[in-house]
Amino acid sequence: MKKIILTGDRPTGRLHIGHYVGSLKRRVELQNSGIYDKIFIMIADAQALTDNADCPEKVRQNIIEVALDYLSCGLDPEKSVLFIQSQIAELCELSFYYMNLVTVARLQRNPTVKSEIQMRNFEASIPVGFFTYPISQASDITAFKATTVPVGEDQEPMIEQTREIVRKFNAVYGETLVEPEILLPDNEACLRLPGTDGKAKMSKSLNNCIYLSDTPEDVRKKVMGMYTDPDHVRVEDPGKVEGNTVFTYLDAFSKQEHFARYLPDYASLDELKAHYKRGGLGDVKVKKFLNAVLQEELEPIRNRRKEYEKDIAGVYHILQEGCRKAQEAAGETLDEVRKAMKINYFDDMDLINEQIKRFQQ
Ligand code: TRP
Q1: Is the pLDDT of residue 119 over 90?
Q2: Measuring from atom 5 of ligand 1, which residue has the nearest CA?
Q3: Is 89 helix (H, G, I), strand (E, B) or coil?
Q4: Residue 189 has what pLDDT?
Q5: Are both 114 and 15 inside the same structural domain?
Q6: N or C: which end of the chain has fewer CB within 10 A?
Q7: pLDDT for position 39
Q8: In a domain, 206, yes or no
Q9: Which residue is closest in CA terms to ligand 1's atom 9?
Q10: Do 103 and 244 fall within a single domain?
Q11: Count of C-beta atoms within a 10 Å radius of residue 235
Q12: Which residues form the domain of 115?
């Protein structure tokens, strides 16, 4: 069986370094590993509209931002198909059929939907489109016969729901769809990078994100203002590294070679942590180190972005080409689905002949 990746993001804002360590970096590695037959990366604008129905302009503006973020991280249109969800009408058709295979109770139990309903104060009146977005996500994945879905742990319930839909579909209509596997990030610090203020999640409204498109000076300021250990008041005080955002970021980003380059007094992150815990190591020194590490990681991304920004028409062209390829792939699956569901009336000569015979008798 072919190995196929599908994954994507909602275009509701620029992508930040949480997206980068949590998924983008991995996607580029998977892309360049050469072990996948096809890779589809989707800008999930239709899904973004399920809870932003009244902000079409925001979604529209962020399509190009996310596309630039993708390209600048090293997703390569020669190797990966970058496309926009809403342009693939086949996905809506699939969702319409899958809706017959899922109960309201099952959707209500989906933990991601549950917490998002709370977060958005949708309890009193949930938009149907939002409520059913796990079904639409199953369409995104199955339309491309994806075997592998690299996403964060918060997406686990979505993949589980997709697997159930696939099993149900195949049991009712015959073996047609492929059951996908989730691929979680491998470094624990990358599962969820906290905000610069120490809050659990990076979020635009909390103003606690470091964006991939931030300038070097933005990044430096954000790092120098980061939340550390509030009880670590004087340099001599012993400090905590657990829950200390600067160390969480170092867990996610620092490599052995960074020490030789930027902080040669320490051989490793463990040594740095030990000194911090003992006392005698100031926050500023650690933050300066983190800044150097982040700047090194972000610089090539920033440079690639600058190049693509000079050719925005070219970026739209890449997306349009991606949509064409994605539609072709989804169309093939739809043909099989319609056939399995016995709704392929006009391309099935056997069916027509059978009916001719029936009415001749
Ligand atoms: N739900 C994902 C997010 O919020 C975006 C998404 C839509 C997606 N369809 C998908 C991810 C299919 C993986 C596979 O970021």
Answers
A1: no
A2: 9
A3: coil
A4: 59
A5: yes
A6: C
A7: 98
A8: no
A9: 137
A10: no
A11: 13
A12: 4-192+312-353
